[in-house]
Amino acid sequence: MVAEQNRVDSGRGEEAAISQQAPDPAATGVSDLTRSPSLYQAVFIRMAEGVLCQDSKGAFTAVNPAAERIVGRSARELLGMSHDSPQWEAIHRDGTAFTGPEHPCMMSLRTGAAYSNVVMGVAKPDGTRIWVSVNSQPLMPGGSSPYAVITTFHDITAQIRAEDEIRRLNVRLEKRVAERTQQLEAAVKDLESFSYSVSHDLRAPLRAIDNFSRILQREYGSALDAEGQRLIGVVRKNAARMGTLIDGMLAFARAGHRDLILANIDLEALAREVLDELAPTFAGRKVDVELISLPRVHADTTVMRQVFFNLLANAIKFTRCREAARIEIRGQVTGHEVICSVKDNGAGFEPEYGHKLFGIFQRLHDSDEFEGTGIGLGIVKRIIEKHGGRVWAEGEPDVGATFHFALPRQQSQVAS
Amino acid sequence: MSNLQGQVEILLVEDNPDDAELTRRVLNEQNLANRLVWLKNGALALDFLFARGTYAGRGTGNAPRLVLLDLSLPKVSGLEVLQQLKGDPRTKTIPVVILSSSTQDKDILRSYDLGVNSYVSKPVQFEDFVAAVKQLGMYWLLVNKPPNAS
User: Fold this and answer.
1) pLDDT tens digits for chain A (416 residues)?
2) Using CA atoms, how far apart are residues A111 and A40, in angstroms rounded to an integer?
3) Is the whole model's pTM more than 0.80, yes or no?
């Protein structure tokens, strides 16, 4: 043992922890050790790290008790072995065998460099596999080629098992997520085609109700008194209302149905087009519209037009009570999102009900005050979420409302 | 059903009797339904147009001047009728207007792919329905000029 330590002392491995060439022994704490060989010995014997001293062929020339304990072999047994003794069955993390030259000790001997944290699986005599993290330091006198190597290691079996377990659980989780996603997508698709066909199938009887009551009114009107006429009117009004709701459902189903065709689009041009289209709905009113730094985004033009249409039609509708309506459409690019906001000075809403606004058929105003089906914002939300974005709103009763949508930037950024 | 001997003006292919009655009423008011044949499924429509089966003795020379075709039909769908009609040199010049509840993009695209002359989605409300049927009847029977018109 002592002979081995002496050899260690003369080592010139670049990162050797024990070195007489240490520039400031006091600072490194090495000086006490050099003065006391018994202290050296105590460290070697008591340290938790396994130590193997190996000659230039890799044969073990000295081992410490920690090494014996970790690999489950006695010093006697180990001193007859080398790095590539078949008993080790040394393997990499991926299960492939360590070839002789791949062992860190051999690499150190070959290159003169130190290697650290090399993960190696080895077999104990009882066949159980342990994992160790191996470091190797070559011993080189005066810049010559290494004549020996010090290999130290510690047991990382628990850590490796935990990693394996995490990996296994992750794989299982991913599989589960994939399965669930598939089920969910199928369910959503079913639901979409269901709502689509229901909406279609509902139109035919509705057409019959409305049309035949109208024919009744026209051809047999003279046989009905005023109350009879009024009742037919009620039937027709409700058929019309139901028609509007079905159209809304269809539009909502369609918003989810469509595959997005992404392109680099100019939000400002799109907003202007939609405003032109909506112009007749606010003819004769004073409506100030301001467009502020609307960016280009990567999105589907057709459905984004629908988003602007719904948001701007709302802004126009809910500012009807204002003598001078103000609508501001503002764009903003943040770190990871492109945010677009439509702000109006209209009827607004009570903030505590804000979360309901984007729900389908949800309305916060009486229908005799502001007409509508409560589907427009549901469609906006659906379209934006399909782009991977989000929507939210702020409002104050009788002051106004602001609707925001944000598109993720990697998708919405201009692809130049 | 009107007489099958003389020239049939309109072939209406529609499985919903209420829709068929409404369509006929509107055309009647415009005096466009005098020679209208109403068939309730796609198989009968093909028999009629190709003068076979039930309509073997009819002769294909006597083609309707307009086909109003619903899409969701029993037996043979409207799209299949359209495909066969537009795929056959004897019948491909007959104007076909789809009159359907469907506003689905894929139905509309497919119809045009197959060579439909016009696609009209049936409105729910009376005034709209009347206006649509009236306009398409007038246009196709009175305004439009078909090839080799006799």
Assistant:
1) 333 333 333 344 433 344 444 445 555 556 666 678 888 888 999 999 999 999 988 899 999 999 999 999 999 999 989 988 888 899 999 999 999 899 999 999 999 999 999 999 999 999 899 999 999 999 987 767 888 999 999 999 999 999 999 999 999 999 999 999 999 888 887 877 777 777 777 888 888 998 999 899 888 989 989 999 899 989 988 888 888 888 877 777 777 777 788 889 999 999 999 999 999 998 889 999 999 999 999 999 988 999 999 999 999 999 988 899 999 999 999 988 999 999 999 988 888 877 788 887 777 776 667 777 778 888 899 899 989 999 999 999 989 999 999 999 864 444 43
2) 28
3) no
Q: What are phi and psi of A291, to 5 degrees?
A: -105, 125
Residue of B139, B33, B50, B44 whose CA lies nearest to B86: B50
List Cβ neighbours of B147 (8 Å cut-off, separation of 6 or more): B93
Comparing CA positions, the residue from A260, A258, A248, A200 lying closest to residue A360 is: A248
Q: Do B22 and A246 touch (CB under 8 A)?
A: no
Question: Mutation test of the interface with chain A: which of B109, B124, B125, B133, choosing the one with the most A Cβ atoms within 10 A?
Answer: B124
Shortest CA gap B17–chain A (Å): 10
* Residue A153 near residue A134 (C-beta atoms within 8 A): yes
Q: What is the ipTM of this complex?
A: 0.72
State the nearest Cα–Cα gap between A196 and chain B, in angstroms: 9
A390-396 and A60-63 strand pairing: unpaired
Under an 8 A CB cutoff, do A210 and B103 touch? no
